[in-house]
Design a protein that fits this description.
Elements lengths: L1 E7 L7 H17 L6 E7 L13 E7 L2 H7 L3 H9 L10 E11 L8 E7 L7 H16 L7 E7 L14 E7 L2 H8 L2 H9 L12 E8 L2
Antiparallel strand pairs: 1-3, 1-4, 2-3, 2-8, 4-6, 5-7, 5-8, 6-7
Length: 223
């Protein structure tokens, strides 16, 4: 199974509330009609963030398909075209991008709409081969992250290797997805020794020449 991850910023003139409401209602109804879509989750950036800064994204859409061939085939269906066309009603298309990934579940714990979902957008260290990066992330860094006491669930979404053919570079090499019970749990995690070990290890495989972007979301399962 593959997962497409879309990075969304609201259209100029829309408030955060208007963007979220439209996405959850009108747009979600269109996506529900797409045949052979196995799962669809909307990750809405939590409102409290906007009191201190404008987040990189207003949300992330995650869509699961049986395989890439199915994803490409149903993209031509009228239901898919209708959902795609509707993006212009609420999304800034100039800032919209996506990656196609495969999940690597590191900690298979619970997730729910009441939990805080942290999505970290990662790029590999300059000069590092993609397969070396993915192996280090999965086998060395992943086990360090799972030691954070407050962490409930942890999934690595790795960009499929086919995306790098012919020298192409996706916007990110993957997304680290972490679930916590609350924002307080996230703060406690950030103060832990285990978290400090995770941060120290990032220099071994991530591009740390600039801040690593992330958002914290509340999720809505549509399918």
């Amino acid at each position: 199974m593959v997962k497409a991850i879309y990075f969304l910023k609201r259209k100029d003139g829309l408030s955060v509330k208007e963007f979220g409401n439209y996405w959850r209602t009108q747009h979600a109804q269109l996506v529900r009609r797409i045949p052979e879509l196995r799962r669809y989750v909307q990750c809405h950036t939590i409102r409290s963030v906007y009191r201190t800064r404008e987040p990189l994204y207003d949300g992330v859409a995650e869509l699961w398909y049986d395989d890439v061939e199915t994803m490409r085939r149903i993209a031509e269906r009228p239901e898919s075209r209708a959902a795609l066309a509707d993006n212009q009603a609420f999304v800034d298309l100039s800032k919209m991008s996506f990656i196609v990934t495969e999940e690597r579940i590191q900690k298979d714990g619970p997730s729910s709409s009441t939990m805080m979902h942290m999505l970290v957008f990662v790029r590999r260290k300059p000069g590092m081969e993609v397969e070396t990066f993915q192996r280090y992330w999965r086998e060395t860094h992943g086990p360090l992250v799972t030691q954070i006491p407050q962490l409930r669930r942890y999934v690595q979404s790795h960009v499929r290797l086919g995306a790098y053919r012919a020298g192409l570079e996706p916007v990110y090499d993957g997304v680290a997805e972490l679930w916590f019970d609350s924002t307080d749990a996230i703060r406690e995690a950030a103060a832990s020794q285990q978290y400090q070990a995770v941060r120290a290890d990032e220099t071994n495989f991530l591009d740390v020449s600039r801040p690593i972007p992330f958002i914290i979301t509340q999720d809505f399962v549509v399918i």
